[in-house]
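Incident log, support desk, overnight shift.

02:14 A customer reports that sequence design results differ from what the structure should imply. Their input is reproduced verbatim below. On-call engineer (initials T.W.) acknowledged and began investigating.
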């Protein structure tokens, strides 16, 4: 092992420790770690800015930027207050019913939208609902991000790693729904049960607050009906663009930026009101994280691990599926699952090509492990980072360990249930 590889691993581990312990601001750690990777020669400017495999994933960054602008403008119409009051009234002011509603809505939306986009749309509603009920929004936000990562696993477009798997494995939209949607429905039901236990202290019913919520008129929350109509039209166009992206060839990031530009043009607001809600720290954190992980990919560290696993399993495809399922879940909880899957997909494709139909379940093991493993830690999936940024911006700090202590339970249970599913469906 070269000195360069040792230094790169040391930088990554040190950065991860600082992020986990929160001794320094995470954006400072991510950018500092990225700078060190450049200085030790683990990556360079060409790889950082122009490489799809080892550089900054501009699709993720600009998708986030576009949706943050859209959601920021939409927030000024009063729509989120309207939805918050309406959902609280529909649930009769009972916190657990509200959480169940938000989990189901988030999971369904995440199956057809990028899970980051879903969090950007749903989180503001949760903050307002919790405020009305006098509850901490943290349990609601955590439940939603878990639901987004689980729900996004069900379809080709629901989670970025699935797009990579679909492209490498020549797997279509209907294939994902047929193979993964059944277990995802079960896992969402399991998540609801887990949340009932994990966040039980949140569900105390306050009759007085519930009565005050029921007395509110949600229609009074709308502050600018004209802007609301314009915003909803643009959001509708963006959603159609997301769903039809495989037909039009427009990447989700381009769709989001086009939608943001159109809405800015229609809204005619001051720049401060347009860009005030953009989570700039979150975007920079992603950039730094992509550079650090990309450096490990560039040096072949992740590929070496994958090759070792490939040599171990041989033609034992059930064993290979188990390795991919649990290994992907673990590593995707430590590094972002997008570059991880980008590295593992070629190796998986080699095994599937040589093994034929018998080896095809490896794709589903990789998808389930990488997508569900994103719930393991605060940096396991893009949606996690965005949700924590939104919470912090609204005065609710969610530490790395607070997220992880719940994420470990959710990940262990959901990934654990996928193991018998793969065995029963493909190998029994």
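02:41 Re-run completed on a clean worker. Output:
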């Amino acid at each position: 092992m070269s000195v360069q590889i040792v230094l790169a691993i040391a930088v990554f581990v040190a950065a991860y420790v600082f992020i986990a312990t929160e001794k320094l601001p995470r954006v400072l750690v991510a950018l500092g770690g990225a700078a060190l990777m450049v200085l030790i020669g683990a990556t360079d400017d060409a790889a950082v800015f122009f490489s799809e495999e080892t550089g900054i994933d501009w699709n993720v960054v600009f998708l986030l930027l576009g949706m943050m602008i859209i959601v920021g403008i939409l927030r000024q119409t009063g729509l989120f207050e309207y939805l918050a009051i309406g959902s609280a009234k529909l649930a009769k002011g009972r916190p657990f019913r509200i959480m169940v509603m938000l989990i189901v809505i988030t999971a369904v939306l995440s199956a057809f939208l990028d899970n980051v986009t879903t969090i950007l749309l749903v989180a503001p509603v949760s903050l307002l609902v919790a405020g009305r009920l006098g509850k901490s929004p943290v349990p609601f936000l955590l439940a939603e991000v878990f639901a987004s990562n689980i729900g996004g696993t069900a379809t080709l477009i629901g989670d970025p790693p699935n797009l990579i798997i679909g492209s490498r494995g020549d797997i279509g939209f209907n294939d994902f729904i047929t193979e993964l949607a059944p277990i995802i429905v079960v896992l969402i039901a399991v998540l609801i049960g887990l949340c009932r236990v994990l966040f039980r202290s949140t569900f105390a019913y306050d009759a007085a607050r519930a009565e005050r919520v029921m007395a509110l008129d949600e229609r009074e929350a709308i502050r600018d009906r004209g802007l609301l109509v314009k915003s909803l039209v643009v959001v509708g166009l963006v959603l159609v663009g997301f769903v039809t992206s495989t037909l039009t060839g427009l990447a989700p990031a381009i769709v989001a930026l086009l939608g943001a530009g159109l809405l800015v043009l229609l809204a005619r607001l001051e720049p401060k009101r347009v860009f005030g809600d953009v989570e700039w720290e979150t975007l920079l954190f992603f950039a730094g994280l992509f550079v650090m992980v990309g450096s490990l990919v560039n040096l072949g560290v992740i590929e070496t691990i994958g090759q070792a696993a490939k040599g171990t399993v041989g033609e034992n495809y059930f064993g290979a599926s188990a390795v991919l399922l649990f290994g992907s879940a673990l590593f995707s909880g430590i590094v972002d699952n997008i570059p991880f899957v980008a590295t593992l997909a070629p190796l998986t494709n080699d095994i599937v090509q040589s093994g034929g139909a018998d080896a095809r379940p490896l794709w589903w093991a990789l998808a389930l492990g990488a997508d569900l493993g994103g719930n393991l830690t605060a940096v396991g999936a893009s949606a996690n980072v965005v949700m924590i940024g939104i919470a912090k911006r609204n005065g609710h700090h969610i530490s790395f360990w607070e997220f992880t202590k719940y994420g470990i339970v959710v990940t262990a249970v959901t990934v654990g249930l996928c193991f018998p599913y793969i065995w029963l469906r493909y190998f029994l």
